[in-house]
Amino acid sequence: MEKIEKTLEQWRAMLDPEQYNVCRLKGTERPFSGKYTSTRTDGVYHCICCSAPLFDSSTKFDSGCGWPSFYAPIADSAMVEIRDTTHGMIRTEVTCASCDAHLGHVFADGPPPTGLRYCINSVCLDLVPRD
């Protein structure tokens, strides 16, 4: 996978303010506010910054947390996991392996078969429906 690198100014020019805040500054969208929180459309979720495929809709589930949740990425190589100790918590941040966009966090409280919950901000995603 080819690494995509841009300056913050270049990212700011191509993303809307909320996408920039979440993807590049590690912000978060308000719970239950994202356009993909309740979506059941069949397709593939791609990174909004670089279009890399991240999640298949078949792994999406309703966790009740307020953000789209998935039990597995489309490929292990699609994400990078980073220890996050901000806000007085110890969590695992997930970023896009291709462009380093902050996506959300992964927790060990998901359903089978993985037991994982990838809690992802909708603004980081672009759903491409299957035909």
Lay out the secondary structure.
Elements: H1 8-14, H2 17-25, E1 43-47, E2 53-56, E3 60-61, E4 69-70, E5 79-84, E6 91-96, E7 102-107, E8 117-120, E9 125-129
Antiparallel strand pairs: 1-2, 1-9, 3-4, 4-8, 5-6, 6-7, 7-8
Give structural attributes.
131 residues; alpha+beta; Metal Binding Protein, Guanine Nucleotide Exchange Factor, Chain A; three-stranded antiparallel beta sheet; 2 helices; globular; Mss4-like_sf
Describe this structure in words.
With 131 residues, this protein is an alpha+beta fold. 12% of the residues lie in helices and 31% in strands. It has two helices and nine strands. It has helices at residues 8-14, 17-25; strands at 43-47, 53-56, 60-61, 69-70, 79-84, 91-96, 102-107, 117-120, 125-129. Strands 3-4-8-7-6-5 form a six-stranded antiparallel sheet. β3 (60-61) and β4 (69-70) form a beta hairpin. The mean pLDDT is 96. It is an enzyme of class 1 (oxidoreductase). One of its GO terms (biological process) is response to oxidative stress.
